[in-house]
Amino acid sequence: MFESYRANAGGLYLMSADGRRVVSLLQLGSGSRTGDWSPDGRRIAFTKVGQFEIWLANADGSGQVQLTQSSGKSSEAQWSPDGTTISYLSDEDPTNGIIKIVNINGSGARALPNTLGAHYSHDWSPDGRSIVFSNSMNLYIADISGSGLVQLTTNTSCGDIHPAWSPDGTKIAFASCHNGTNVAVYVIGADGSNLTMLTDGVSHDYRPTWSPDSRRIAFQSERAGNLDIWVMDGDGGDPVNLTPDNPGFDVAPKWNSVLVTQ
């Protein structure tokens, strides 16, 4: 699944892992953004632009239900590994963005404690016990109560954003300009070891997402002169453009383990 603007309409689309088949999932005018799959692959969570609230829908786009009703903007929904809750970013705090967690029936919304300034993009650990998040400069890991805070990266030049925890639990991919120029995709061990640059930094590369077997990474890139979805090996090798024929933008990929294995 990815966000795209094509045929004069923005929305969420589905694509096969080799890029050969693309179908429309949700067409909502100015739109739907940054979707995430439920663990069983049967539902999606997404941001409805204009309202900036989190909505749920079936995997075919039907059965849309509004999940959040907030006083601020809600975005970047992430489904918990056990499928019972969804985390998302909220700007209800007028000074700092916060991460909130809500049950999938809309009840029990609660915010993670915020001691590091604004929270940005985030992701769950595969066991559902922790969340990795960006405070716009570095990555941190905390348990879902907000305690046990551990700093993962020590970037002093620019921000580390868009963390994605590998399904096998060993690595975290993210976007950063550690090289001092363009934003590239990096990977680091979940224990903070072995920071490695995966893309060359010639163009801007964002929003990495892991394949279900933790062997490949999809990401968005401007390297072909347009915003496209690319996929590469987990070590950065064999990059392939999956959306070269769309003159509009293609961004924010999310892999679905159920659809990939069918």
What this model shows, in words?
The structure is a single chain. The protein is mostly beta strands and 262 residues long. The chain has a single domain, classed as TolB, C-terminal domain (Neuraminidase, 6 Propeller). Helices cover 2% and strands 44% of the residues. The chain contains 1 helix and 24 strands. It has one helix at 257-261, and strands at 2-6, 9-15, 22-27, 32-37, 43-48, 53-58, 65-66, 74-79, 85-90, 98-103, 110-111, 122-124, 130-134, 139-143, 150-151, 160-165, 171-176, 184-189, 196-197, 205-210, 216-221, 228-233, 240-241, 250-251.
Give the helices and strands, then pairings:
Blueprint: E1 2-6, E2 9-15, E3 22-27, E4 32-37, E5 43-48, E6 53-58, E7 65-66, E8 74-79, E9 85-90, E10 98-103, E11 110-111, E12 122-124, E13 130-134, E14 139-143, E15 150-151, E16 160-165, E17 171-176, E18 184-189, E19 196-197, E20 205-210, E21 216-221, E22 228-233, E23 240-241, E24 250-251, H1 257-261
Antiparallel strand pairs: 1-2, 1-24, 2-3, 4-5, 5-6, 6-7, 8-9, 9-10, 10-11, 12-13, 13-14, 14-15, 16-17, 17-18, 18-19, 20-21, 21-22, 22-23
Which strand order does the major sheet show? 3-2-1-24
What is the radius of gyration computed over CA atoms, rounded to a whole number of angstroms? 17 Å
% residues in beta strands: 35-45%
The CATH topology annotation reads as Neuraminidase
- What summary fits the major beta sheet? 4 strands, antiparallel
How far do the termini sit from each other? 15 Å
CATH architectural grouping: 6 Propeller
- The fourth-level CATH homologous superfamily is TolB, C-terminal domain
Class inferred from helices and paired strands: mainly beta
Highest-level CATH class: Mainly Beta
Total of helices: 1
CA-based shape: globular
Relative helix content: under 10%
Task: Report the mean per-residue pLDDT as an integer.
Answer: 89
Domains (count): 1
Low-confidence stretches: none
H-E order: EEEEEEEEEEEEEEEEEEEEEEEEH
